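Q: My labmate handed me this sequence with no annotations at all. I'd like to see what the chain might look like in three dimensions before we decide whether it's worth expressing. Could you predict it?
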Amino acid sequence: MKLLKNYAFLALLLSLVFVACSKDDDNKPSSSSHKVYFKAIASSGSSISVAVWGYDGKATTASSLSGTTWTSPEFEVPAGTIIANAAVSATGVNASSTLKLQVFVDGEMKDEGSSSGEVLSASVSYSF
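A: Here is what I predict for the chain of 128 residues:
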């Protein structure tokens, strides 16, 4: 049941990110391809459980994860890409537990999202 809640939350979160960004008139497609990956880091004792990542409505899900770190495979987004985004959920051990999610584009960290508490959910996006 808890895993189902995580999936539902991540699906909702990603759909909100895609919808919110699609209404932004300032977004222009990337003029070249880029290498992208995401990295999640949870505090000691926490456990990352689900990750969803992708670009422009194309999403990949990894479930049944464990541990305090997760890194997506590096992937190439083609020219014309508007946004890359990800969401990760984890379970913390107490109210001071933390989760950071970073997006790397062409080897450089561009943005970071974070969460704290016993129920952890972080998201990050990068507009090209």
